Amino acid sequence: HEVYSRAKKHLSNAAKSFLPADSRRYGSVDVMAMCCTSLSFSLGPETVQKELKSGYPSAKAFTDMATASVNAIKYVSGKTGGRLRIGLLTPYIDSVHDSNVAFLKKNGIDVVVQHNLGLTQDTLTSSVEPSSILSVVETVAKSSAEKLDAFFIGCSAFQSTGYGFIDKVENAIKMPVITSNQAVLWQCLRLCDGVTPEDLRKVRGYGVLFSRQPIKSNI
Q1: pTM
Q2: What residues have CB less than 8 Å from 156, skipping those under 6 apart?
Q3: Backbone angles phi, psi at 145, to 5 degrees
Q4: What is the pLDDT of residues 136-164, one digit of tens each?
């Protein structure tokens, strides 16, 4: 958590490093997103987006992986009310994993079955083979004694969003699957000017998140 506190101080400067915010010179940025799952969950969406806005105020919309993941889980569930039940896999150490679970619970999502790998570096996380991720997800999902609304694979460093991988996991465990990178891509596209729900449903290889029909919600 000390690392995340230090990172907070640099979010605004990082946002400033993009193309000049003068839309008359370079066009406009539709969406500014912060892509680190654990940082988003730990600092909270309000803090992250406030820092992004201070660094790049001319962007039309702002988001982060905590917001995107929660919205995506709720969307694929097909439910318009009530608490959701999910399975969760992360590569994190216990304290970081637990903060993710707490954030999800605060936002109406109960983690029924879970597993974390206890990895201490992103290089270790990114070296985990997709086949190993699939194997662990299958084991965790099958350990649930109750029906799950979705399965969430958290961490942007996981190799869990390659073309076709999410489809493969969904076919294996017979439920919607959300990954951090998939969720933030979906959220950004939804916030972009000119992108319609019909456009999103044309996307293939990245799970039912893109193909599901829109539901009535406040997302």
Answers
A1: 0.87
A2: 35, 36, 37, 65, 180, 181, 184
A3: -85, -10
A4: 999 999 999 889 999 999 999 999 999 99
